[in-house]
Amino acid sequence: MPKSILHKANTRGHANHGWLDARHTFSFAGYYDPERVHFGVLRVLNDDRVEAGMGFGTHPHDNMEIITIPLAGELRHRDSMGNTAVIHAGEIQVMSAGTGIQHSEFNSSADTTLNLLQIWLFPNKGNVTPRYDQQLLNVADRHNKLQQILSPNSDDEGVWIHQDAWFHLGKFDKDVATNYTLKLKGNGVYAFLISGDLTINGQLLNTRDGLGIWDTDILHLKAESPDTEVLLMEVPMNLE
After folding, report:
1. Rounded distance, CA 133 to CA 68, Å?
2. Listed residue (219, 226, 217, 218) closest to 197, CA to CA
3. Is residue 132 part of a domain?
4. End-to-end CA distance of the chain
5. Parent domain of 213
6. Nearest Cα to Cα of residue 64 among 38, 47, 41
7. Is residue 27 part of a domain?
């Protein structure tokens, strides 16, 4: 029998620092809920709005797979590996922090708010050599279907990470239905609804709701409103 957990948008942790308005699906920084520390290897799902010209100064990470998806605006990145880049809405960025990196992230625009999702996954191997990648995604490839944007395999669609995880984005017209079959037995899926209204296995989600489902092989999705956009994150449920 499938199991699930629903996280409504308004139950997320909230921190407003003026320049940063952050919503935390899982415990992060000053927000702690013992019932919401992680979903399998999915440790962080932050929905951040960063004011123009502002950002996060240089700070360290290690032994974490870090995925950033700008939803609106552009993010300027600099790291200790020598990478300097701007990541725009429609792109995905990934870092394997491994043995340790330092980086900074700023809103590259002087007049537009940046909205991004930052996602952390525990890796399936420790102390790897740090690495960086970013890719431009073809937004048309997710219209009324699921577009793979991340996997464990470097020769697959999207970016790759050190974990048996698969991410997909889909943007659906009203009443369009589709299925998602899990790639690996024992994995679960955490769905984050970016916009619109969506039913997954009979559960209605509204904008910015999250739903974790496990002990199942397939998800049934149906868009209940126009311009419904969802991020599906299939992840191992057991921490290694």
Report:
1. 11
2. 226
3. no
4. 24
5. 139-236
6. 41
7. yes
Q: Cα–Cα distance between 192 and 9 in angstroms, integer?
A: 10
240 pLDDT tier (thresholds 50, 70, 90): low
**What tens digit of pLDDT does each residue of 166-222 get?**
999 999 999 999 999 999 999 999 999 999 999 999 999 999 999 999 999 999 999
The CA distance from 137 to 121, in Å, is 21
Return all residues near 182 (Cβ < 8 A) that are at least 6 apart: 189, 216, 217, 218, 219, 234
The rounded distance, in Å, linking the Cα atoms of 130 and 154 is 15
From the list 225, 217, 181, 231, the residue with the least C-alpha distance to 199 is 225
Q: How many other β-carbons are positioned within 10 Å of the β-carbon of residue 83?
A: 16
| d(C-alpha 144, C-alpha 179), whole Å | 11
Phi, psi of 156 (to 5 degrees): -90, 175
Counting residues of the chain whose pLDDT is more than 70, the rounded percentage is 100
- CB under 8 A, 24+ apart: contacts of 196-203: 196/172, 196/223, 196/224, 196/225, 196/226, 196/227, 196/228, 196/229, 197/223, 197/224, 197/225, 197/228, 198/172, 198/222, 198/223, 198/224, 198/228, 198/230, 199/224, 201/2, 201/4, 203/4, 203/6
At 180, list the tokens: 């998602």
CA distance 157 to 239: 25
Domain annotation covers residue 212: yes
Please give the tally of structural domains in the chain.
2
Residues 88 and 168 in one domain: no
User: Is 130 part of any domain?
Assistant: no
